Amino acid sequence: MIIENTGLNGMSSELAHLDESAEKLGFVRWQWEYYRATYDLKLEDRANREDYYLRFNTRAIEGKLESAHAVLQVESVYIGRATFPHGLDYDSPIPQPILNAASQRLQELKKLLA
Q1: 10 Å Cβ neighbour count for 86?
Q2: Is this prediction's pTM over 0.85?
Q3: In this prediction, what percent of the chain has a pLDDT beyond 70?
Q4: Which H or E run contains 106?
Q5: What would the DSSP string read from start to end of 79-104?
Q6: pLDDT tens-digit profile of 56-111?
Q7: Cis peptide before 85 (omega within 30 of 0)
Q8: In DSSP terms, which residues pair with 21 in a beta bridge?
């Protein structure tokens, strides 16, 4: 599920600041290459015993990710249910408490990057 109207799409930040801000909120930069990076945050629904991942993609608009001074721009934000053994189901409905937690983290990230 793509999350619209987060205010993050198009925001840019130096890699070091983005990493620091994302880590403060529990995001981890998992997938990356020279020009792209993906940040994930695991959200647990204990009631249903399901895990969800809030994810945002970034792309380098200046420099490469091997430099802390590279500038990255947020491209899209989305959330999905974790599937076994690995993967995300983006079509499953997301419980409202998980969506609320995701929205809160995204607003906190937006404040840190502003």
Answers
A1: 6
A2: yes
A3: 100
A4: helix 96-113
A5: EEEE-SSS-EESSS---HHHHHHHHH
A6: 999 999 999 889 999 999 999 999 999 988 789 999 999 999 999 999 999 999 99
A7: yes
A8: none
